[in-house]
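Subject: for your reference before the review

Hello V.,

The reviewers asked for a structural picture of the protein, and I figured it would be easier to keep everything in one thread rather than splitting it across files. Below is the amino acid sequence we used in the manuscript, unchanged from the supplementary table.
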Amino acid sequence: MLGQFPGKAIENDSNGLTYPQKQLSLSEAANKHQLIWMPQNVNIDDIDDTDYQKIIKHLKNDTRVIQTQPSEITGQIMLRLKQITEQSSNKHTETISKIMVDTHVEDFVQAAELNNFLVQKQFQSLINPFDNQQNRMKQYEKRLKDTQVLIIFYGRVNQDWVVERLTEATKLMLTDKSAIHSRIIFVAPPKKEIKDLKQRLDFLLKGIQLLDNSDSEQILPNNFSQIIAATEKGGVS
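And here is what came back from the structure prediction:
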């Protein structure tokens, strides 16, 4: 709080500061959100202390300052907290990677559960059910350009479809500008042996992550941590 008067001087202060001025100095040195209240009846022209008058003039247009009646302080504080929360939320949204869960219609229900799980964990994730109709393919290509992490869902669908889908997505990455930096095959129940799939991927495609969750109905912590790690990586996989 800063008012009409500079306040009581601090004894033995080398800079001759008053207590309010010292508080202001400390707040400016701190990298924290701040709020300075100034009573509405403060009149700069009526301030006798020249140095203090300069400080108040300087602060008049400072975004940290609110000049209201005492009864309005609580409302102003709540409004400022809401603004800070919204700014932090927007900043988080801008920095996290966009995920697309690509699935065959046969695995749509399970894939939707994975997608909902990611959304609940505050990721920007959407699900893309496979459809070979031309208009759907155009939509898929458009979504792919705006995706950083591509997850191919491998549940009950045939393994050949998974490889074909991943190959098609990789072709789109190579022919068009794409933001994708991580490609993942999420292996869901029923239980599978993925040795053959690994060999096919090593022969055809490089840099693919295989997350085997086929032996559990729940998303295993290790697999989820690898998805998180994938969202933080840069560069094309």
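For the response letter, the relevant points are probably these. The radius of gyration is 29 Å. Residues 1 and 37 are 5 Å apart (CA to CA).

Happy to draft the paragraph if you're swamped.

O.
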